[in-house]
Design a protein that fits this description.
WD40/YVTN_repeat-like_dom_sf; 4-stranded antiparallel sheet; mainly beta; Methylamine Dehydrogenase, Chain H
Length: 339
Amino acid sequence: MAASIVELPHYFRTHSKTEEAQHHKGKVHSVAWSCDGRKLASGSTDRTVCTYNIDRERLSRDCHFKGHSDTVDTLTWHPKHPDRLATASSDKSVRLFDARSNKCTSAIQTKGENINLSWSPDGQTIAVGNKEDLITFIDVRTSKTKSVEQFKLEVNEFSWNKDGSLFFLTTGQGSIIIHSYPDMKLLHTQPAHSSNCICIQFDQSGQYFATGSADALMSLWDITDLTCLRTFSRLDWPVRTISFSHDSNVIASASEDPFIDIASTFTGEQLATVKCEAQTFEIAWHPKRYLLAIAGDEKDRYDSSKDAGIVKVWGFSGEVSTSQKSTQNTPKPLMSLQL
């Protein structure tokens, strides 16, 4: 079906249904889709990891991984292999899981309480960051540490660029630091925000990236010349999580605000909002569809002293029958990303 930029607001109005899965006993801190979009994973303060399938447009639990002895703060799937999952925990370890055998294939000890995780584009290296601003690079093939980098300033999120030649970090000083990889030579420090720069995400083309900050702004950047193309300012609280859609046309951002902002990457126009009952920890767009996974701080509906342990996916159709949903297509990519 043909699609234009003006059709997206209507699309999201008719695809605003949220499905939930409640299989954790604690807060859900992280969510991530496998590279083929067949599985969703979540990590929780209950020390476990769950994976889910989308079965007839509903979330159904696939597997429940145990093994960590503390909060699972972050997780990520292999960029090319849809069954390999990496998790990082406050228990000073990284674990690798195989979703086919439903087993942990490796447990790697690290030097601190881990809070951030990234998988290199070639799938050979995992970078894990801890609360002491130490980043450990792990060889996935041997499950051994390749190198460590200690930073003297606060390091938040980090990510490789698309070809893996550059390594980007956000800092507590509001800057973006860029290193060459694998030699980790400092190439550039880019002032980005007026306060703590919290999160970073690259779009699917690798041409653009976005950063979120404690100044409540999200900024869109051109990777070639590090030009800030625009800022998004609808949130009132620190922007803690952002995500580009599969076609790079849409960008979502979230914080402690009572909504998630869904915006056009091209114009900055708000396309939709997702109502939140509590602060949002992480969001992630599906790699092929306009489906947004959400991890938040919701409480149990019947006992507000307990965490709900809920994973949400927003973007399902509310207008068609179940039998029709499985064959319904989302809009085709609207245009190449040119800003």
